[in-house]
């Protein structure tokens, strides 16, 4: 699967964070403080009933991000083995 944003990652799939886009600049420190750093594994868990926010699992805890925030996080999906 080609690289995509975290917002585009199918639910239940895991990926590695590759970078934060320039659009993440206003909340980059917040994302980094929550452990959203390049190289970290992340799993898309579920969407809220109205489609926003997105729940992810990272570093053993669950975190909710707005889709607009998730769209600024680039990931490389892991291939199924």
In short:
The protein has 81 residues and is mainly beta. It has helices at residues 28-33, 67-70; strands at 4-5, 14-20, 41-47, 54-58, 61-65, 73-77.
What does this structure look like?
The chain has helices spanning 28-33, 67-70; strands at 4-5, 14-20, 41-47, 54-58, 61-65, 73-77. The chain is mainly β and 81 residues long. It has a six-stranded antiparallel sheet. A hairpin with a 2-residue loop joins strand 4 and strand 5. The chain is globular, with a radius of gyration of 11 Å. It starts with a strand and ends with a strand.
Mean pLDDT across all amino acids: 94
Task: Output the number of helix runs.
Answer: 2
* Topology order in helix (H) and strand (E) letters: EEHEEEHE
Give the uncertain stretches in residue-range form: none
In terms of quaternary structure, the protein is single chain
Q: How large a portion of the residues is in β-strands, by DSSP E? A: 35-45%
Largest sheet: 6 strands, antiparallel
Distance between the termini: 13 Å
